[in-house]
Design a protein that fits this description.
Elements: H1 2-7, H2 11-22, H3 31-46, H4 55-65, E1 70-72, E2 75-77, H5 79-95, H6 98-101, H7 105-118, H8 122-139, H9 147-153, H10 162-174, H11 177-189, H12 197-210, H13 215-226, H14 235-252, H15 261-268, H16 270-276, H17 285-302, H18 308-322, H19 327-343, H20 354-370, H21 374-386, H22 389-392, H23 396-410, H24 422-427
Antiparallel strand pairs: 1-2
Pfam families: ARM_TBCD_2nd (PF25767)
GO molecular function, one term: beta-tubulin binding
Organism: Rhizochromulina marina
Length: 428
Protein backbone atom coordinates (compact mmCIF):
# COMPACT_ATOMS: atom_id res chain seq x y z
CA UNK A 1 0.00 0.00 0.00
CA UNK A 2 2.73 2.48 0.96
CA UNK A 3 4.62 1.62 -2.24
CA UNK A 4 1.62 2.11 -4.52
CA UNK A 5 0.53 5.40 -2.95
CA UNK A 6 4.10 6.75 -2.94
CA UNK A 7 4.48 5.93 -6.64
CA UNK A 8 1.60 8.37 -7.40
CA UNK A 9 3.12 11.26 -5.44
CA UNK A 10 5.44 14.00 -6.74
CA UNK A 11 9.14 13.41 -6.13
CA UNK A 12 9.40 15.76 -3.10
CA UNK A 13 6.39 14.22 -1.35
CA UNK A 14 7.57 10.69 -2.16
CA UNK A 15 10.92 11.48 -0.57
CA UNK A 16 9.10 12.65 2.57
CA UNK A 17 7.51 9.19 2.79
CA UNK A 18 10.96 7.57 2.47
CA UNK A 19 12.31 9.86 5.22
CA UNK A 20 9.40 8.90 7.50
CA UNK A 21 10.04 5.19 6.91
CA UNK A 22 13.74 5.62 7.74
CA UNK A 23 12.78 7.30 11.04
CA UNK A 24 11.19 4.01 12.15
CA UNK A 25 14.66 2.46 12.56
CA UNK A 26 15.28 3.83 16.02
CA UNK A 27 16.40 2.04 19.18
CA UNK A 28 13.37 3.48 20.96
CA UNK A 29 11.00 1.72 18.52
CA UNK A 30 9.80 -1.86 19.01
CA UNK A 31 10.37 -4.85 16.77
CA UNK A 32 7.08 -4.13 14.93
CA UNK A 33 8.40 -0.79 13.67
CA UNK A 34 11.65 -2.37 12.47
CA UNK A 35 9.76 -5.17 10.73
CA UNK A 36 7.31 -2.80 9.03
CA UNK A 37 10.09 -0.39 8.13
CA UNK A 38 12.07 -3.16 6.41
CA UNK A 39 9.05 -4.32 4.40
CA UNK A 40 8.26 -0.73 3.38
CA UNK A 41 11.88 -0.04 2.36
CA UNK A 42 11.91 -3.18 0.23
CA UNK A 43 8.69 -2.19 -1.56
CA UNK A 44 9.91 1.37 -2.12
CA UNK A 45 13.20 0.07 -3.54
CA UNK A 46 11.44 -2.43 -5.82
CA UNK A 47 9.29 0.35 -7.29
CA UNK A 48 12.26 2.67 -7.82
CA UNK A 49 11.07 5.13 -5.17
CA UNK A 50 14.09 4.85 -2.86
CA UNK A 51 16.43 7.08 -4.83
CA UNK A 52 20.21 6.41 -4.81
CA UNK A 53 21.00 9.53 -2.75
CA UNK A 54 19.07 7.93 0.15
CA UNK A 55 21.20 4.76 0.14
CA UNK A 56 23.86 6.10 2.58
CA UNK A 57 21.04 6.43 5.15
CA UNK A 58 19.20 3.22 4.25
CA UNK A 59 22.10 0.74 4.04
CA UNK A 60 23.39 1.16 7.65
CA UNK A 61 19.91 0.61 9.13
CA UNK A 62 19.38 -2.48 6.95
CA UNK A 63 22.78 -3.84 8.05
CA UNK A 64 21.68 -3.26 11.66
CA UNK A 65 18.27 -4.87 11.06
CA UNK A 66 19.86 -8.03 9.62
CA UNK A 67 21.46 -8.59 13.07
CA UNK A 68 18.39 -7.47 15.09
CA UNK A 69 18.00 -9.65 18.19
CA UNK A 70 16.44 -8.28 21.40
CA UNK A 71 16.28 -10.29 24.63
CA UNK A 72 12.82 -10.83 26.14
CA UNK A 73 13.11 -12.86 29.32
CA UNK A 74 14.72 -16.21 28.53
CA UNK A 75 14.10 -15.83 24.78
CA UNK A 76 14.57 -13.14 22.16
CA UNK A 77 12.56 -11.29 19.53
CA UNK A 78 13.81 -10.40 16.07
CA UNK A 79 13.66 -13.35 13.64
CA UNK A 80 10.89 -11.65 11.63
CA UNK A 81 12.93 -8.42 11.46
CA UNK A 82 16.04 -10.27 10.22
CA UNK A 83 13.93 -12.10 7.63
CA UNK A 84 12.47 -8.80 6.39
CA UNK A 85 15.97 -7.24 6.27
CA UNK A 86 17.06 -10.08 3.96
CA UNK A 87 14.09 -9.18 1.73
CA UNK A 88 15.39 -5.57 1.61
CA UNK A 89 18.83 -6.83 0.49
CA UNK A 90 17.13 -8.92 -2.20
CA UNK A 91 15.13 -5.88 -3.36
CA UNK A 92 18.25 -3.67 -3.45
CA UNK A 93 19.99 -6.18 -5.73
CA UNK A 94 17.14 -5.92 -8.26
CA UNK A 95 16.62 -2.16 -7.99
CA UNK A 96 20.10 -0.66 -8.42
CA UNK A 97 22.93 -1.01 -10.89
CA UNK A 98 26.31 -2.39 -9.71
CA UNK A 99 27.86 1.09 -10.02
CA UNK A 100 25.26 2.61 -7.66
CA UNK A 101 25.60 -0.21 -5.11
CA UNK A 102 29.40 -0.43 -5.16
CA UNK A 103 30.03 1.96 -2.21
CA UNK A 104 27.53 0.06 -0.04
CA UNK A 105 27.99 -3.62 -0.87
CA UNK A 106 30.64 -4.39 1.76
CA UNK A 107 28.26 -3.71 4.68
CA UNK A 108 25.39 -5.62 3.10
CA UNK A 109 27.58 -8.50 1.94
CA UNK A 110 28.99 -8.97 5.44
CA UNK A 111 25.52 -8.82 7.01
CA UNK A 112 24.04 -11.35 4.57
CA UNK A 113 26.92 -13.80 5.01
CA UNK A 114 26.83 -13.60 8.81
CA UNK A 115 23.06 -14.20 8.80
CA UNK A 116 23.33 -17.06 6.28
CA UNK A 117 25.99 -18.85 8.33
CA UNK A 118 25.24 -18.01 11.95
CA UNK A 119 21.57 -17.08 12.36
CA UNK A 120 19.74 -19.24 14.88
CA UNK A 121 16.61 -19.63 12.71
CA UNK A 122 16.58 -21.79 9.59
CA UNK A 123 14.26 -19.44 7.66
CA UNK A 124 16.61 -16.48 8.28
CA UNK A 125 19.67 -18.44 7.14
CA UNK A 126 17.89 -19.46 3.95
CA UNK A 127 16.50 -15.95 3.36
CA UNK A 128 19.99 -14.46 3.74
CA UNK A 129 21.42 -17.05 1.34
CA UNK A 130 18.70 -16.24 -1.23
CA UNK A 131 19.43 -12.50 -0.91
CA UNK A 132 23.17 -13.15 -1.27
CA UNK A 133 22.53 -15.27 -4.36
CA UNK A 134 20.43 -12.50 -5.93
CA UNK A 135 23.14 -9.94 -5.19
CA UNK A 136 25.93 -12.08 -6.64
CA UNK A 137 23.87 -12.71 -9.78
CA UNK A 138 22.84 -9.10 -10.38
CA UNK A 139 25.70 -7.08 -8.89
CA UNK A 140 28.55 -9.16 -10.33
CA UNK A 141 31.74 -10.65 -8.94
CA UNK A 142 33.45 -7.22 -8.78
CA UNK A 143 31.08 -6.24 -5.97
CA UNK A 144 30.95 -9.72 -4.40
CA UNK A 145 34.37 -11.42 -4.64
CA UNK A 146 34.27 -15.25 -4.53
CA UNK A 147 30.47 -15.05 -4.67
CA UNK A 148 30.00 -18.03 -7.00
CA UNK A 149 32.27 -20.31 -4.92
CA UNK A 150 30.42 -19.35 -1.73
CA UNK A 151 27.00 -19.91 -3.33
CA UNK A 152 28.06 -23.34 -4.52
CA UNK A 153 28.85 -24.37 -0.93
CA UNK A 154 26.21 -22.34 0.94
CA UNK A 155 22.89 -23.23 -0.65
CA UNK A 156 19.32 -23.82 0.53
CA UNK A 157 20.04 -27.39 1.70
CA UNK A 158 23.53 -27.12 3.22
CA UNK A 159 22.46 -24.16 5.38
CA UNK A 160 19.36 -26.03 6.56
CA UNK A 161 21.37 -27.93 9.19
CA UNK A 162 22.62 -25.41 11.73
CA UNK A 163 25.70 -27.41 12.78
CA UNK A 164 26.73 -27.80 9.13
CA UNK A 165 26.42 -24.04 8.56
CA UNK A 166 28.49 -23.23 11.66
CA UNK A 167 31.21 -25.86 11.38
CA UNK A 168 31.63 -26.71 7.68
CA UNK A 169 30.35 -23.83 5.54
CA UNK A 170 31.78 -21.09 7.78
CA UNK A 171 35.24 -22.71 7.58
CA UNK A 172 34.96 -22.70 3.77
CA UNK A 173 33.86 -19.04 3.62
CA UNK A 174 36.58 -18.14 6.14
CA UNK A 175 39.21 -19.51 3.75
CA UNK A 176 38.68 -16.29 1.73
CA UNK A 177 40.71 -13.54 3.42
CA UNK A 178 38.13 -10.84 2.64
CA UNK A 179 35.52 -12.44 4.92
CA UNK A 180 37.69 -14.24 7.50
CA UNK A 181 38.08 -11.61 10.21
CA UNK A 182 34.45 -10.52 9.98
CA UNK A 183 33.32 -14.12 10.64
CA UNK A 184 35.72 -14.61 13.54
CA UNK A 185 34.93 -11.24 15.12
CA UNK A 186 31.17 -11.87 14.88
CA UNK A 187 31.60 -15.20 16.67
CA UNK A 188 33.75 -14.00 19.58
CA UNK A 189 32.06 -10.59 19.96
CA UNK A 190 28.38 -11.48 19.40
CA UNK A 191 27.40 -15.13 18.98
CA UNK A 192 29.49 -16.47 21.87
CA UNK A 193 27.26 -14.40 24.21
CA UNK A 194 23.96 -15.56 22.65
CA UNK A 195 21.06 -16.41 25.00
CA UNK A 196 20.73 -19.95 23.56
CA UNK A 197 23.28 -22.38 25.03
CA UNK A 198 23.30 -24.42 21.80
CA UNK A 199 24.41 -21.33 19.84
CA UNK A 200 27.15 -20.53 22.38
CA UNK A 201 28.45 -24.10 22.16
CA UNK A 202 28.33 -24.14 18.35
CA UNK A 203 30.05 -20.75 18.20
CA UNK A 204 32.94 -22.01 20.33
CA UNK A 205 33.35 -25.04 18.03
CA UNK A 206 33.11 -22.78 14.95
CA UNK A 207 35.91 -20.61 16.34
CA UNK A 208 38.11 -23.68 16.73
CA UNK A 209 37.33 -24.64 13.09
CA UNK A 210 38.39 -21.16 11.91
CA UNK A 211 41.45 -21.01 14.18
CA UNK A 212 43.87 -22.60 11.69
CA UNK A 213 43.14 -19.86 9.13
CA UNK A 214 44.70 -17.12 11.27
CA UNK A 215 46.23 -18.40 14.53
CA UNK A 216 48.08 -15.11 15.02
CA UNK A 217 44.77 -13.21 15.19
CA UNK A 218 43.45 -15.75 17.71
CA UNK A 219 46.48 -15.32 19.99
CA UNK A 220 46.78 -11.55 19.68
CA UNK A 221 43.11 -10.50 19.56
CA UNK A 222 40.48 -13.21 20.14
CA UNK A 223 41.68 -14.87 23.37
CA UNK A 224 42.76 -11.59 25.09
CA UNK A 225 39.36 -10.05 24.28
CA UNK A 226 37.49 -13.06 25.74
CA UNK A 227 39.45 -13.52 28.99
CA UNK A 228 37.95 -10.51 30.87
CA UNK A 229 34.45 -11.98 30.36
CA UNK A 230 35.32 -15.29 32.09
CA UNK A 231 34.54 -13.65 35.45
CA UNK A 232 31.61 -11.57 34.19
CA UNK A 233 28.50 -11.17 36.35
CA UNK A 234 26.40 -12.03 33.26
CA UNK A 235 26.19 -15.83 33.15
CA UNK A 236 25.78 -15.90 29.35
CA UNK A 237 29.00 -13.94 28.79
CA UNK A 238 30.82 -15.96 31.44
CA UNK A 239 29.78 -19.34 30.02
CA UNK A 240 30.37 -18.41 26.37
CA UNK A 241 33.79 -16.88 26.97
CA UNK A 242 35.04 -19.88 29.02
CA UNK A 243 33.91 -22.27 26.27
CA UNK A 244 35.49 -20.16 23.53
CA UNK A 245 38.84 -19.83 25.33
CA UNK A 246 38.85 -23.60 25.95
CA UNK A 247 38.19 -24.52 22.31
CA UNK A 248 40.73 -22.01 20.98
CA UNK A 249 43.45 -23.26 23.33
CA UNK A 250 42.82 -26.83 22.16
CA UNK A 251 42.74 -25.78 18.48
CA UNK A 252 46.10 -23.97 18.68
CA UNK A 253 48.03 -27.04 19.89
CA UNK A 254 48.00 -29.04 16.58
CA UNK A 255 49.04 -25.88 14.69
CA UNK A 256 52.27 -25.64 16.69
CA UNK A 257 51.36 -22.09 17.74
CA UNK A 258 52.59 -21.40 21.26
CA UNK A 259 50.85 -18.94 23.56
CA UNK A 260 52.81 -16.11 25.24
CA UNK A 261 53.64 -16.83 28.88
CA UNK A 262 51.43 -14.07 30.28
CA UNK A 263 48.47 -15.39 28.25
CA UNK A 264 49.12 -18.96 29.47
CA UNK A 265 49.14 -17.70 33.07
CA UNK A 266 45.84 -15.86 32.54
CA UNK A 267 44.17 -18.92 30.98
CA UNK A 268 45.32 -21.28 33.75
CA UNK A 269 44.09 -18.79 36.38
CA UNK A 270 40.52 -18.74 35.00
CA UNK A 271 39.19 -21.75 36.95
CA UNK A 272 40.70 -20.71 40.34
CA UNK A 273 39.32 -17.18 39.79
CA UNK A 274 35.83 -18.60 39.15
CA UNK A 275 36.00 -20.67 42.34
CA UNK A 276 37.34 -17.77 44.39
CA UNK A 277 34.41 -15.59 43.25
CA UNK A 278 32.02 -18.51 43.97
CA UNK A 279 30.55 -18.31 40.48
CA UNK A 280 29.38 -21.95 40.52
CA UNK A 281 26.60 -20.95 42.90
CA UNK A 282 23.14 -19.83 41.91
CA UNK A 283 21.12 -20.34 38.76
CA UNK A 284 23.13 -21.76 35.87
CA UNK A 285 26.02 -22.88 38.07
CA UNK A 286 26.04 -26.34 36.50
CA UNK A 287 26.78 -25.03 32.98
CA UNK A 288 29.67 -22.97 34.37
CA UNK A 289 31.01 -26.15 35.99
CA UNK A 290 30.78 -27.97 32.66
CA UNK A 291 32.57 -25.14 30.87
CA UNK A 292 35.29 -25.04 33.56
CA UNK A 293 35.82 -28.81 33.20
CA UNK A 294 36.06 -28.39 29.43
CA UNK A 295 38.66 -25.64 29.93
CA UNK A 296 40.73 -27.93 32.19
CA UNK A 297 40.48 -30.67 29.55
CA UNK A 298 41.70 -28.28 26.83
CA UNK A 299 44.53 -26.95 29.02
CA UNK A 300 45.63 -30.56 29.49
CA UNK A 301 45.32 -31.45 25.80
CA UNK A 302 47.40 -28.35 24.93
CA UNK A 303 49.88 -29.41 27.65
CA UNK A 304 50.25 -25.92 29.07
CA UNK A 305 52.98 -25.94 31.74
CA UNK A 306 51.46 -26.13 35.25
CA UNK A 307 53.28 -26.05 38.59
CA UNK A 308 52.48 -29.05 40.83
CA UNK A 309 50.42 -26.87 43.16
CA UNK A 310 48.20 -25.75 40.25
CA UNK A 311 47.88 -29.34 39.00
CA UNK A 312 46.51 -30.38 42.39
CA UNK A 313 44.24 -27.33 42.51
CA UNK A 314 42.67 -28.20 39.15
CA UNK A 315 42.40 -31.86 40.17
CA UNK A 316 40.46 -30.74 43.27
CA UNK A 317 38.10 -28.83 40.96
CA UNK A 318 37.49 -31.97 38.91
CA UNK A 319 36.90 -34.01 42.08
CA UNK A 320 34.18 -31.57 43.15
CA UNK A 321 32.49 -31.84 39.75
CA UNK A 322 32.61 -35.66 39.93
CA UNK A 323 30.29 -35.42 42.96
CA UNK A 324 27.76 -33.18 41.20
CA UNK A 325 24.17 -34.38 41.08
CA UNK A 326 23.77 -33.60 37.35
CA UNK A 327 25.12 -36.35 35.09
CA UNK A 328 26.23 -33.98 32.29
CA UNK A 329 28.61 -32.25 34.73
CA UNK A 330 30.01 -35.62 35.86
CA UNK A 331 30.59 -36.76 32.27
CA UNK A 332 32.43 -33.55 31.39
CA UNK A 333 34.53 -33.88 34.56
CA UNK A 334 35.40 -37.48 33.63
CA UNK A 335 36.44 -36.41 30.11
CA UNK A 336 38.65 -33.71 31.65
CA UNK A 337 40.10 -36.16 34.18
CA UNK A 338 40.94 -38.63 31.39
CA UNK A 339 43.02 -36.01 29.56
CA UNK A 340 44.41 -34.35 32.70
CA UNK A 341 45.84 -37.55 34.22
CA UNK A 342 47.51 -38.42 30.91
CA UNK A 343 49.11 -35.00 30.36
CA UNK A 344 50.35 -34.47 33.93
CA UNK A 345 51.39 -36.63 36.94
CA UNK A 346 54.32 -38.54 35.37
CA UNK A 347 54.94 -42.07 36.66
CA UNK A 348 58.41 -43.60 37.06
CA UNK A 349 59.45 -47.17 36.12
CA UNK A 350 58.52 -48.35 39.65
CA UNK A 351 54.94 -47.11 39.31
CA UNK A 352 53.29 -44.01 40.80
CA UNK A 353 54.52 -42.52 44.06
CA UNK A 354 52.65 -43.48 47.23
CA UNK A 355 51.41 -39.89 47.51
CA UNK A 356 49.99 -39.86 43.97
CA UNK A 357 48.46 -43.29 44.47
CA UNK A 358 46.74 -42.16 47.67
CA UNK A 359 45.59 -38.85 46.15
CA UNK A 360 43.97 -40.31 43.03
CA UNK A 361 43.21 -44.03 42.79
CA UNK A 362 42.96 -44.95 46.48
CA UNK A 363 40.78 -41.91 47.17
CA UNK A 364 38.38 -42.74 44.31
CA UNK A 365 38.11 -46.41 45.32
CA UNK A 366 37.46 -45.44 48.94
CA UNK A 367 34.62 -43.10 47.93
CA UNK A 368 33.18 -45.78 45.65
CA UNK A 369 33.21 -48.31 48.53
CA UNK A 370 32.02 -46.16 51.41
CA UNK A 371 30.13 -43.04 50.21
CA UNK A 372 26.48 -42.74 51.26
CA UNK A 373 25.51 -40.28 48.51
CA UNK A 374 24.61 -41.78 45.13
CA UNK A 375 25.98 -38.90 43.02
CA UNK A 376 29.43 -39.38 44.64
CA UNK A 377 29.61 -43.09 43.84
CA UNK A 378 28.29 -42.60 40.29
CA UNK A 379 30.92 -39.98 39.43
CA UNK A 380 33.84 -41.82 41.01
CA UNK A 381 32.93 -45.13 39.34
CA UNK A 382 33.25 -43.33 36.00
CA UNK A 383 36.45 -41.63 37.17
CA UNK A 384 38.19 -44.94 37.95
CA UNK A 385 37.46 -46.03 34.37
CA UNK A 386 38.99 -42.82 33.00
CA UNK A 387 42.35 -43.17 34.79
CA UNK A 388 45.38 -44.22 32.69
CA UNK A 389 46.74 -47.76 32.96
CA UNK A 390 49.96 -46.48 34.56
CA UNK A 391 47.90 -45.52 37.65
CA UNK A 392 45.45 -48.44 37.63
CA UNK A 393 47.42 -51.45 36.37
CA UNK A 394 51.06 -50.80 37.28
CA UNK A 395 51.00 -54.10 39.24
CA UNK A 396 48.73 -57.19 39.20
CA UNK A 397 47.85 -56.65 42.88
CA UNK A 398 46.71 -53.09 42.22
CA UNK A 399 44.61 -54.13 39.22
CA UNK A 400 42.98 -56.90 41.29
CA UNK A 401 42.08 -54.34 43.97
CA UNK A 402 40.48 -52.02 41.38
CA UNK A 403 38.52 -54.84 39.72
CA UNK A 404 37.33 -56.19 43.08
CA UNK A 405 35.97 -52.76 44.06
CA UNK A 406 34.25 -52.28 40.69
CA UNK A 407 32.74 -55.79 40.77
CA UNK A 408 31.47 -55.19 44.29
CA UNK A 409 29.83 -51.91 43.22
CA UNK A 410 28.33 -53.53 40.11
CA UNK A 411 26.88 -56.52 41.99
CA UNK A 412 23.09 -56.93 42.00
CA UNK A 413 22.74 -56.54 45.76
CA UNK A 414 25.13 -53.58 46.14
CA UNK A 415 23.81 -50.53 47.99
CA UNK A 416 24.74 -46.89 48.33
CA UNK A 417 23.90 -45.98 51.91
CA UNK A 418 20.72 -47.97 52.51
CA UNK A 419 19.37 -47.80 48.96
CA UNK A 420 20.21 -49.69 45.76
CA UNK A 421 21.48 -47.41 42.97
CA UNK A 422 21.24 -48.63 39.38
CA UNK A 423 23.38 -45.79 37.96
CA UNK A 424 26.32 -46.61 40.24
CA UNK A 425 26.11 -50.27 39.15
CA UNK A 426 25.91 -49.24 35.49
CA UNK A 427 28.92 -46.91 35.77
CA UNK A 428 30.96 -49.49 37.68
Amino acid sequence: GVGRITSRLPKEFADDVVASVLELFSDSEGDGAWHGGCLALAELARRGLLLPFRLPEAVPVVAKAIQYDVRRGSNSVGAHVRDAACYVCWAFARAYSPAVMRPHVDKLCEGMLLAALFDREINCRRAAAAAFQENVGRQGHENFPHGIEILTAADYFTLGVRANAYLKISAFVGSFAKYRHALMAHLYEVKIFHWDIAIRTLSSHALSELCHLDPEHVVQVAIPSLLPYTSSADILKRHGSILAVAELVAALKPLGKSLPEDLQTSIVAVVPAIEKARLYRGRGGEIIRQAACRLIECIASAELPLPVKMQLRLLDSLDESLKHSIEAVQLQAVAALRQFTRSYFPVGPDGPSARLQARVLDKYLEILRTADIASHTRGHALAVGALPSRLVAFSPENLDKVLATLCSSAAVGSRVGDEPDAETRRNA
